[in-house]
Amino acid sequence: MFRFLTAGESHGPCLTMIVEGLPAGLEVEKEIVDADLRRRQGGYGRGGRMKIEKDAIRFLSGVRHGKTLGSPITLQVENLDWVNWEERMNAAPVEAEMEPVTRVRPGHADFTGSVKYGHDDVRNVIERSSSRETASRVAVGGLCRQLLSQFGISVHSHVLSVAGVGYETPRGMTKEAYSEEMWRAVEESPMRTADAALTEKMIARILEAKRDGDTCGGVFEVVAFGVPIGLGTFSQWDRRLSTRVGMAMMSIPSVKAMEIGAGFETTRTTGSHVHDVLRREEDGSWSHPTNNAGGIEGGISNGEPIVVRVGVKPIPTLAHPLPSVDLATGENIDQSRYERSDVCVVPAAGVVGEAMLAIVLTEALLEKFGGDSIEETLRNYRSYLQQ
Amino acid sequence: MFRFLTAGESHGPCLTMIVEGLPAGLEVEKEIVDADLRRRQGGYGRGGRMKIEKDAIRFLSGVRHGKTLGSPITLQVENLDWVNWEERMNAAPVEAEMEPVTRVRPGHADFTGSVKYGHDDVRNVIERSSSRETASRVAVGGLCRQLLSQFGISVHSHVLSVAGVGYETPRGMTKEAYSEEMWRAVEESPMRTADAALTEKMIARILEAKRDGDTCGGVFEVVAFGVPIGLGTFSQWDRRLSTRVGMAMMSIPSVKAMEIGAGFETTRTTGSHVHDVLRREEDGSWSHPTNNAGGIEGGISNGEPIVVRVGVKPIPTLAHPLPSVDLATGENIDQSRYERSDVCVVPAAGVVGEAMLAIVLTEALLEKFGGDSIEETLRNYRSYLQQ
Amino acid sequence: MFRFLTAGESHGPCLTMIVEGLPAGLEVEKEIVDADLRRRQGGYGRGGRMKIEKDAIRFLSGVRHGKTLGSPITLQVENLDWVNWEERMNAAPVEAEMEPVTRVRPGHADFTGSVKYGHDDVRNVIERSSSRETASRVAVGGLCRQLLSQFGISVHSHVLSVAGVGYETPRGMTKEAYSEEMWRAVEESPMRTADAALTEKMIARILEAKRDGDTCGGVFEVVAFGVPIGLGTFSQWDRRLSTRVGMAMMSIPSVKAMEIGAGFETTRTTGSHVHDVLRREEDGSWSHPTNNAGGIEGGISNGEPIVVRVGVKPIPTLAHPLPSVDLATGENIDQSRYERSDVCVVPAAGVVGEAMLAIVLTEALLEKFGGDSIEETLRNYRSYLQQ
Amino acid sequence: MFRFLTAGESHGPCLTMIVEGLPAGLEVEKEIVDADLRRRQGGYGRGGRMKIEKDAIRFLSGVRHGKTLGSPITLQVENLDWVNWEERMNAAPVEAEMEPVTRVRPGHADFTGSVKYGHDDVRNVIERSSSRETASRVAVGGLCRQLLSQFGISVHSHVLSVAGVGYETPRGMTKEAYSEEMWRAVEESPMRTADAALTEKMIARILEAKRDGDTCGGVFEVVAFGVPIGLGTFSQWDRRLSTRVGMAMMSIPSVKAMEIGAGFETTRTTGSHVHDVLRREEDGSWSHPTNNAGGIEGGISNGEPIVVRVGVKPIPTLAHPLPSVDLATGENIDQSRYERSDVCVVPAAGVVGEAMLAIVLTEALLEKFGGDSIEETLRNYRSYLQQ
């Protein structure tokens, strides 16, 4: 049974993840996970924290001599900033008086978390609600990616728009609409956008927001290639692949919207323009000349790329803070607090989106193919393809 | 522990649902659930099936003399059409030769389900992948709604657009943007749209599609009022309220897109225009003059209406069918099959959306407040409000 | 994902079960399930209710023309006694005044359930806490049994002792200790005991208890043959096969004790007398000349019969009732209530034990081998055996 | 939602646990957890490993200044022996040739785990199947214990017998059968047995086994005091408190048997001697003069001590090894492998049993009372007691 938990405060000693249910004998490389962590830390528009942290995992269990054991895998990412926070974030009581954070930031969990958990010090909330937690998911996703690659599945992301600056014509979603070259360009762009001119325009937009003490959101696209026909099911509402993709994407902090395939666009036209015709090729394989369904029909993968578009709201922490409330006094105040933050995290959010999609596909794949060793899972997979 | 399962084929004898974990002593009325089932069956653009079925539940367990017992609740909805399908859908083997369905409809589970489950007869797929299954969820939601009303929580839906025909200016999302009168108008409109002129325009659009043998999708909005601050948590990715709302909405058949609050719109502007300022009122209550967050901040409800907008693709079953494949011969064909269907289900999908939101809120509420009897749960809830 | 829920009150209209996650294409026969239900209703020492009920299932979903569809399966068992209880157990409010049950029976959920759920009428508790609920599990188990038989797995039970009357020398637990002939004798014995003389002694003991207005418990043994090496895992505490067997057996009403293999006996000797030596046979197969482990080592099946011994306390409902309390008055009373009941249910409990073991093995088997159709699951299973 | 995962190999760098769902604001002390870890490491009959390890936790998340935050709690226990195993157990590939373990020990997961996971080196199995993993559970239980103590619940264990040497007359199970003084004596006994003479006899028995190169099992009892009426439910088979206690106890490595309350003894007599009469005291409280039910009736706690007796088989690793098989050659061998081990772990297993019971009670308590802060949970609990 594939499952995982993540833990860790933003300024605590480390992030810790336990991942269970990956088959034994799978070759896993720390370097592949670390590369994903670095990709998450990059992107134009990031703040000072990204310069402090050089995220890298350590395997503390479940992996031996480069292969999974079948036992739970522990991954740990040290917080290099911890040295500056040891007293403020110590697990044990400390002598020094700590000044509590009491001014809440609009758009964050500062207010809701304080009420829910009965905290007087908003620090007790923001340490976990911080999107530093997404590094945990990227690490787990980096592990899943290594499983998926055994099955010929790869997951990519790129940025479609930032604060309204984006592609002017809609991009296609068939296999042919993407290329190795394109993904290389994405990885080289500080905006994770293949189009160099667009990258520059986006950067200019972010700079403008920064000058205004403001922040930007945007839209990223995640795409999975090589997903076999048959993952997910309509049998029960919570087992649909669309359900799980929805769950995964909407779980990312700051995400407020998502689409599978043509999404909202399908609501503006009629059925005959939307549905993807199925063709049987001469070699017996299946194809769809269009991919408006984004690779999922009836809650099940249909062999086309899984395409998801995800809307990220602007970061709530503004250099020119909005009015708010001080929870200690209960008074309305003109400016909430500013805590070091980024101006735009859309490229990073895309990397988190990749991880979440990799996680969802791993779960669905292991559910269908079973297996306790990678040989067994692969054998089951191959015999299904040949059936 | 709140959980439920649904079962039932579209042309089988009935739909059956088991719901567990509602507190004991809750007054529940069959009529309230039936009213929701009727609302799901209505709306302009529905096909012939809706005339056959008069959905109504029967409680088969868990309710005695009008109150819940604390034991699992069984709800059953008879399929009145069953008499015409007894042989074709019999659980036992039958003598007669059954002609299998082999031509798959684009946009449906026909193809993906057949490959996944190894079915030769597509009927074995479509009976469960049919959106008749959503009646089950509406029934479960109708039960949850009765729990929520004890806590002052109500859930509504209305249609924002059909095939691009919709409100021309964006609607607000604060409490004040909605009214009892508006919801009454929604319930009276065959399009579930408060604006009478818009209702007529939508109907005209559907008629046009129908004439073309085509189908329409659209966008509906679900809103929950009275949700207390503090449901859901950022503590783990799968416990966020946004995660669960995402899961719930993306699980609805034909849904391809969703937004919480201002959604994609937030990606087109900057942070200072998006985040909802918190105010403390003189009576000690909290308010936000705007509700771009759609009632969820940091994965937790913030006391404002929960607002979700959901995009429904056009129905895949076209009266002028698209080209497809015959699975029996493996040959490409010019026209897939037509099975009796609707032209537009957006109003009905909105009712399903209400049910799913009611389910999600019930789960989150019981998780926070616990309790084995409604008195206990209410007592815990009230003491939290006063804390 | 294999999961199921059961529902239904003892004197409600029916018992309802939804079972999800069995592969498609599996041949299932109603008659096999009904046979198990009849076996549960039999056994010497049962009361009048068993004469009223002739339990039989109806498939209401998930099965078509004798084969599973892959969609959730609904099973329903009518309560024939319902006609006598329609008013007292009606889901809707009724006009007539109902006299509440207020005198609690020691050993039952009468007291604990009333306090937990805040019920004034103990009837609201006992309708679900009644062991009639176990018919639901037997039905689910009867379905699982049909899956398992495809993999050569069979599950049996017999009674070892009743009120201390039982086998005088311990029985072995290797494959050789059991035979087809023995199981035939078990099925023919009203005590579900292969030894005819012992059957008579047990009956005499039950008669004696009955004369005294008293009740008997006893010990049954459940055995599963043909379980492949490798089900369950030590990887996490809740995934051990022993954990799941423990869960399953201790969930049976009135069960207060259980042992896997030699159980408590292993605590009275030393390791060299307990552990089962592994041998490799000339044909490459594995064997253990003893089976003190009861087929589970390190939380994983080892290829030997799974053997579980389970202790059932005497039925709490005594014809000569024990002193108790009247919850309405809060007064101590000399005699609690008598509600029609059995004198001894150990043979029936054994049939429930079979069902629970079949359920546990089904879950563990599907987890390991995956598959959405029975062909796929079998193919995966066979290729594992050959690896 | 309370849940946890454990991870870590026996000779890896550390054990890691993530615990989610404890309310915020709970005071937790590392020292209390460490004391439990020390109690697990003690007991007469332990081997050399216990001298190397001085288990102590480090909180890596979820706790700040001595109180829980409501976010997931990470606990880590370093393996001091790791320095000697860095190469053999390294996560990364190493240059040196590693000699695989291939001779399997009867009674362990060595054989079953190797077949299941397809491992050639039994080391890949035994590192996780080792009962070192139980230290993880003791740590989690030590955290739960601190929650439970807020509700007046305490959990203890003691040893009833070792290799047949034990109490000669059965011990009672009512509150009065236990005393503070008795538990103090237990904590001071190297056998965790209150009776000093019995302690000596047990030690003599262990010494004898040791001289023979053999091992001993035994029986321990776990008792929880102060559990309120109403935890667990008969509503669904897997929510019974007995189910969860069964799951918890049977999950402990080497446990082969368990009883709740009088257990198997109840099967040897009749109902009138077994069931615990309920009395209402003059102060309005409830009592049962006997406790044969072990505190659970109808799957729900009844206010009496929860009493569980658990049978632990002798340790499988014998200094005079049993015959076995070499998996590399497939040959039957006269002696399996000896790896440093204990002679008797029954006292330690009792401490693990305490932890598992504390975990089960924590889950059931939080399910009933809800709450996101300890104040909220306590408030809900107190108002239930007064209802």
Task: Tell me what you see in this structure.
The structure is a homotetramer of 387-residue chains. With 387 residues, the first copy, chain A, is of the alpha+beta class. Chain A has one domain (104-385): Chorismate synthase AroC (Chorismate synthase, AroC fold), CATH 3.60.150.10. In chain A, 31% of the residues lie in helices and 19% in strands. Chain A contains 10 helices and 17 strands. Chain A has helices at residues 30-41, 49-52, 110-117, 123-129, 134-150, 180-188, 196-211, 241-250, 346-369, 374-385; strands at 3-7, 14-20, 57-61, 63-64, 67-68, 73-78, 154-162, 165-166, 218-225, 255-260, 279-280, 286-287, 296-297, 300-301, 306-312, 324-326, 331-333. In chain A, strands 8-7-9-15-10 form a 5-stranded antiparallel β-sheet. Chain A has a 4-stranded antiparallel β-sheet with strand order 1-2-6-3, covered by helices on one side. In chain A, a hairpin with a 6-residue loop joins strand 1 and strand 2. In chain A, helix 1 crosses helix 5 and helix 5 crosses helix 9. The longest helix of chain A is centred in the C-terminal third of the chain and has 24 residues, at 346-369. Chain A is globular, with a radius of gyration of 22 Å. At the C-D interface, helix 3, helix 4, helix 8, strand 10 and strand 11 of C face helix 3, helix 4, helix 8, strand 10 and strand 11 of D. Chains A, B, C, D: Pathway: Metabolic intermediate biosynthesis; chorismate biosynthesis; chorismate from D-erythrose 4-phosphate and phosphoenolpyruvate: step 7/7. Chains A, B, C, D: Keywords: Amino-acid biosynthesis, Aromatic amino acid biosynthesis, FAD, Flavoprotein, FMN, Lyase, NADP. Chains A, B, C, D: Belongs to the chorismate synthase family.
